């Protein structure tokens, strides 16, 4: 454990002062850090206690030719009356500058704390619980690392229990282990979905279709860029931009999405043949396309596809959901 550059304690003090000025409480401020490891732990403690939705440790070149670095905490606040955005919230930031010579070593300390690369499939990701060391934490920070010439840009996204429950892994869903592994590999690799084959999450209302769509979002690789139209969007991380259909409706929102050329397009819920036809065209033009539709059987889901595009040139992959009327038990089956 190396001694910290002197600025780390000062940066933490300035951050606490800035939060207090913004009306953001930190009930139990961490001790003044002595080492970089202390400073890294203090950042997560402060962000967790203050209720930040994410924070970043950053450095970037300025127009004047210099380089600025600092720490930014972001908070979600409700939109003002009459100005409701697509997510229903807006983001407020609390920022402090830090010395540039702190940027690289602090990024390295956070990498160590977050156990960066523990998942060999996701070498640019780590995780930190809050409180530190908790097995079932109030908040689980998903930490992303982007290496650059100046050091490592760190982005930590706060995931509370509700968010973690809303975005489960496939292994937590009512399907066979074999199917869970198959879906996890499909959405992590993605290559099979760039050949025009759409993925439909079918079933009746209340059967768990949206939860499975969320599991697919959770399985996507870190280098993907996706856009999702959801009735109830919830912040996940930087891979996927989420929005409500808004005044433009599902079809208008999807058209706007495609102009941004995302890797993945996700829609919940597709209700009309026109919306479904547009998504099928999205799949055929090289975008991995995932959609939730209402259909009582896989055959009914396929019939809806053929209604939307009678000359469908590729087969669909249907993930079908059923719910027992008496017991309420849910089952998920795959139909290729």
TrEMBL record:
Domain Bacterial type II secretion system protein E positions: 118-307
CC terms in the record's Gene Ontology section: plasma membrane
Keywords per UniProt: ATP-binding, Nucleotide-binding
Gene Ontology MF terms in the entry: ATP binding; ATP hydrolysis activity
Pfam families cross-referenced by the UniProt entry: T2SSE
Gene3D superfamilies: P-loop containing nucleotide triphosphate hydrolases
Family of the protein in this entry: Belongs to the GSP E family.
Name listed for the protein in its UniProt record: Flp pilus assembly complex ATPase component TadA
Organism the protein comes from: Pyxidicoccus fallax
